[in-house]
Design a protein that fits this description.
The protein is mainly α and 751 residues long. The protein has 4 domains: 164 residues, no CATH class; 191 residues, Methane Monooxygenase Hydroxylase, Chain G, domain 1, CATH 1.20.58; 116 residues; 199 residues, Four Helix Bundle (Hemerythrin (Met), subunit A) (Up-down Bundle). The protein is 77% helix and 0% strand. It has 28 helices and no strands. Helix 14 packs across helix 27.
């Protein structure tokens, strides 16, 4: 008689299966597991050959290869790997060749650093490979230093070991990409819906019926979250695009493409603003309609998060709570309309438009759980931001060969910092000094805010790692145990390097101590590692402060102008859609995405400014955040206007409205031009009054409530036109403060 499983065993098995399934959904699990396989293979090889010293160059090659990895399909990963290995081989061989001659080595280091950083102007994947190549160059120096500063009997031995470690990880990565090519797409799509959910929840707080709340602070928080949503949208789009090349007929990939388009539409609808929230609060403070709006948005945000989880775990998706909240909102609006208060009429139209928008959003949530049932998009093309030819790549580099380019400034700053570090290591202590260069590479970032953040975290993490490493090599003297600790530390580094840099730095420092302790005395490395980290951090901080400093306030006016220009293009594309008919074609989606990208870039610049010294950021940041609030408010009204495309029956009277809308766009463009060049902003009060008079007119075809949709569209254009003067005032303050800040910064640097 076969043995029957006990109930307890079944529960344990189900629990274990669920835990493994949840572990598989983590975005860092696959990355960490690949690193674990690579490190384990390197350790196994070195122990099987009884040459534990082989592990160090193999480890360093694995780390550099893993740092160079970018998302792609397996064919793209093969091409990227071949380029990476070639760069690694050339870099490592060059270090081996020039290492004995410092006066040749120093200019070679500076020139190669400049070229690699400028290569990053072509595309992000090239920037990642270039950065990893520079890191491998320093790893080559450290490896040579561990062998007494000479290349030994064989010139090619160490470069081949480093490249061999990189190739080993690259092979694992390619195989993994071939076996599980769609798992990263699924994870990015789940992350996108989680960020959308958080955006909805923050948006819900704007409807909270309370007086005296800091609405501006909530709008700033909403703008920052919008930046995270935009980042998630861009990441998901790039992942899908790379896998769609040559596979347009793939059913599962098309499913993710539909999910992406649904997320885009949800983003536009949740970004929409139908009326100033302060006016709604004042009018309906004693009614429950705003509470109903808040609850519906909150429930839809939670539903988005549950959808992201359902995508990962392949679980049923339930959004019944948000469906019920939508019915409650509709009932509340019906009750208010029954009161027949004429003073509420414009506000009730906006509330009804909001309810229709949220109802469509609810339908999108429902369709997202079964995207295969959604009809194919008429235009499902995606915009390819990669260079289309070698000439295009060269043109991108050429355009960045100017002091105004942050890439160019960093390409000059980092090589000079590396030269200073190289000189210091020869002056202070030529042995164990190459950690100075490594710290400089990791800490010196394109802007002061990021450098300051990484500098602090690098020092704290290094101190923690040295303490932990000292304790581990003291307690566990067995070389095999120390090798296993190195593997674990390496996995911890890659699992935390993007979000928890202190832990990542502590882990990589522990890996260094436990690995080098097996071929020498790890205790002798503790003090040099600490001193070199401090020296490298100081050099990085001074470099980013004094060498072509990229203070965010100096270009704040240009970033703000770009945001306004893209919003203007978005408005023009929306008007074109109203004239020609709704169609979610590439031109419209690109204009919408560029507007949100520019808004997110402005939010990022302002966040970086908060990390800068006070005299560079105080006034600029305050005025910048005021501009961000106005800009994001405008984007909300534009999103609402875009969300209602296709609801109007064409009329001859629409021509005047569309012409007035283009005049609004012209007004915003004049503000953007003045902001870009730091010129006086033209007065727009009379133009705004004239445009508002046009949009406030009753539609010629209006019969009581028979043309509510046209009134809603005119109301949206009215809200947009009302932003002309606030935008002008915000831009004028920004022009004055950025000009004064630039002058003050130049005086400080000159002193």
């Amino acid at each position: 008689m076969p043995l029957q499983p006990r109930p307890g065993d079944t529960e344990i098995s189900d629990s274990l299966s669920h835990s493994l399934r949840r572990l598989w959904t983590l975005d860092k699990f696959a990355y960490s597991f690949r690193v674990f396989l690579a490190f384990s293979g390197a350790i196994a090889l070195s122990w099987s050959l009884d040459q534990i010293a082989l592990a160090i160059p193999l480890f360093l090659g694995i780390i550099a290869s893993a740092l160079s990895e970018t998302d792609d399909n397996w064919e793209g990963r093969v091409r990227a790997l071949l380029v990476t290995l070639l760069c690694f081989l050339v870099a490592s061989a060059s270090v081996e060749l020039l290492f004995p001659w410092p006066w040749l080595f120093a200019p070679g280091l500076a020139i190669s650093a400049f070229l690699f950083i400028m290569l990053g102007a072509v595309e992000q994947r090239y920037a990642t490979i270039a950065s990893a190549t520079l890191i491998l160059s320093v790893y080559s120096m450290i490896n040579i230093e561990q062998h007494g500063g000479t290349t030994g009997d064989s010139f090619w031995r160490q470069p081949l070991l480093l490249v061999g470690g990189a190739a080993w990880y690259g092979l694992i990565s390619v195989i993994w990409c071939a076996l599980f090519s769609r798992q990263p797409v699924k994870q990015s799509m789940a992350q996108l819906y989680r960020e959308l959910g958080e955006y909805l929840i923050i948006k819900a707080t704007l409807f909270e019926p309370l007086r005296g709340v800091d609405v501006e602070a909530r709008r700033v928080a909403l703008a920052r979250q919008n930046g995270r949503v935009v980042t998630a949208l861009n990441q998901a789009k790039e992942m899908i695009f790379r896998r769609l090349e040559g596979q347009r007929g793939n059913r599962k990939l098309n499913r993710y493409l539909r999910l992406y388009f649904i997320a885009q539409d949800i983003h536009e609808r949740v970004s929409a603003s139908h009326y100033p929230y302060s006016a709604l609060t004042e009018t309906f403070f004693h009614h429950d309609v705003l509470f109903r709006c808040q609850r519906l948005l909150d429930q839809q945000g939670s539903a988005c998060k549950r959808l992201g989880k359902a995508l990962l775990l392949r679980q049923p998706f339930d959004h019944s709570l948000s469906e019920q909240a939508l019915e409650d909102l509709r009932a509340s609006i019906v009750y208010l309309r029954a009161q027949r208060n004429p003073a509420w009429t414009p506000l009730l139209r906006s509330l009804q438009a909001l309810a229709r928008n949220l109802a469509t959003l609810e339908n999108q949530l429902s369709s997202a759980h079964n995207p295969d049932a959604v009809a194919d998009e008429k235009d499902a093309s995606l915009f390819n931001r990669s260079p289309r030819s070698f000439k295009d790549a060269c043109e991108r580099v050429r355009l960045n060969l100017t002091p105004g380019s942050p890439t160019f400034r960093h390409a000059l700053r980092l090589p000079l910092a590396l030269l200073v570090g190289y000189g210091v290591l020869h002056l202070v202590h030529p042995t164990q000094g190459y950690w100075i260069l490594l710290t400089t590479l990791f800490v010196c970032r394109p802007n002061f805010g990021a450098t300051r953040r990484f500098l602090r975290q690098r020092i704290i993490g290094t101190v923690a790692g040295l303490v932990v490493g000292w304790a581990l090599i003291s307690l566990f003297v067995d070389p095999l145990l120390q090798s296993l600790i190195s593997v674990v530390a390496g996995v911890v580094f890659f699992a935390n390097r993007e979000k928890r840099y202190v832990i990542a730095t502590a882990a990589i420092t522990t890996l260094v101590l436990t690995s080098f302790n097996q071929i020498g005395d790890g205790f002798d490395l503790i003090l040099p590692r600490l001193i070199d980290t401090l020296i490298g951090a100081v050099i990085s901080g001074l470099a980013v402060f004094f060498i072509l400093p990229d203070w965010q306030g100096r270009r704040l006016n240009k970033v703000a102008a770009t945001a306004l220009v893209n919003s203007t293009h978005y408005l023009r594309e929306i008007i074109h859609q109203y004239e020609a008919g709704k169609q979610d074609d590439l031109a419209y989606r690109l204009a919408r995405r560029n507007a949100h990208n520019a808004d997110a870039a402005l939010s990022t610049v302002l966040s970086n400014m908060l990390q800068e010294p006070g005299h560079y950021r105080k006034k600029d940041a305050d005025d910048g955040f005021r501009f961000l609030v106005v800009s994001h408010t405008l984007l909300g009204y534009l999103s609402a206007l875009g969300a209602h495309r296709g609801t109007l029956t064409p009329s001859e009277a629409d021509a005047e409205i569309y012409a007035a809308a283009r005049r609004v766009a012209d007004g915003f463009e004049s503000i953007a031009n003045a902001l870009q060049t730091r010129q006086p902003v033209p007065a727009l009060e009379s133009e705004q009054s004239a445009l508002m008079a046009i949009f406030e007119q009753e539609p010629a075809s209006a019969q009581d409530d028979g043309d509510d949709e046209r009134r809603v569209i005119q109301n949206q254009l009215l809200h947009i036109s009302r932003q002309l003067v606030p935008m002008r005032e915000a831009a004028e303050r920004l022009v004055k403060t950025t000009a004064a800040s630039a002058t003050a910064a130049e005086q400080v640097v000159s002193k």
